[in-house]
C-alpha cells in the first residue's frame, strides 16, 4: 500500500500560510518527493520526516516554488544529516545546470554538496518510462512557461499504485492521459474561475472531470482566491499535512 503525504500545497506566494509544492509518496520504506519548493525542509521537518530517508526527487518544472528547495535540501544532506546513500534527482535535462546556478547564487561554493552527497541526475523525456529504484516514472509535456519544458508526472509505486500530478499547466487534453485510471490525480487549481495563461483554474478542471478516469482527484497549488471558495468545490482540497492512503 502506498501513502501520499502533502507537505506543501500552496502557491508561490504562501497564500493562506501554506508551504510551497512538495508531495511525498512512500511505499514499503521507499520514499520519493514530487517537487521540492523552497519550503521543502520546513515541510519535512514539521512532519517529523528525516530528509535523509528520501530516496529520490522528481521535479516537474523549474520554477522556484517547485525546485528551489533543492539547494537547502542538499546542504542539509551535507552538513546536518550527513547523508550516506545515493540521492536520485529526476527532471528535465536542464535541471542540473539550473540547480548548480541557483546554488551558486544562494550560497557561493555550495555546489560542493553535489559531490559530497552522492547524487545521480536522471533526465526525463516524454514518451519514455524511467526506473527510479523500485518505482517507475513517466512525464508528459504540458503548457506552462518556465524557461525549460514543464512536465506532468505519472509515478507507479513498487506496489503498483499510480499517482498522477498535473504540475503547473493550463488545461491540455494531455491531462486525460496523465490521469487515466490513476489511483490519485493531484491537479493544480490555482484560481476558482479566472482563466490565467499557463495555469489551471478550478472551473476548467471541474468542466473536464467527466473526462478524467482517476479514482480520485485532489486540488492543490491554491491561491487566496481558491482558498476563499473551497466550500464550493466538487473535489477535495489538499492541505499541508494531508495523508492519503491508496
Structural features, described:
The relative contact order is 0.17. Helices cover 22% and strands 26% of the residues. The protein has a seven-stranded mixed sheet. The protein is built from eight helices and 13 strands. It has one domain (2-238): Ribonuclease Z/Hydroxyacylglutathione hydrolase-like (Metallo-beta-lactamase, Chain A, 4-Layer Sandwich). By secondary structure, it is of the alpha/beta class. α6 (174-179) links the parallel β10 (162-165) and β11. It has helices spanning 40-46, 64-67, 70-79, 95-106, 113-116, 174-179, 202-207, 224-227; strands at residues 2-8, 22-27, 30-34, 56-58, 87-91, 119-123, 129-132, 135-141, 151-156, 162-165, 184-188, 217-220, 243-245.
Strand order of the largest sheet: 6-5-4-3-2-1-13
CATH superfamily assignment?
Ribonuclease Z/Hydroxyacylglutathione hydrolase-like
Separation, N- and C-terminal Cα atoms: 6 Å
Structurally, the number of domains stands at: 1
Q: Number of helical segments?
A: 8
What is the CATH T-level topology?
Metallo-beta-lactamase, Chain A
What general outline do the C-alpha atoms trace? globular
What is the makeup of the main sheet? 7 strands, mixed
Mean pLDDT: 97
Helix-strand makeup class: alpha/beta
- The H/E string reads EEEHEHHEHHEEEEEHEHEHE
Count of DSSP E strands? 13
**Residue share in helices?**
10-25%
**CA radius of gyration:** 17 Å
State the low-pLDDT regions, or none: none
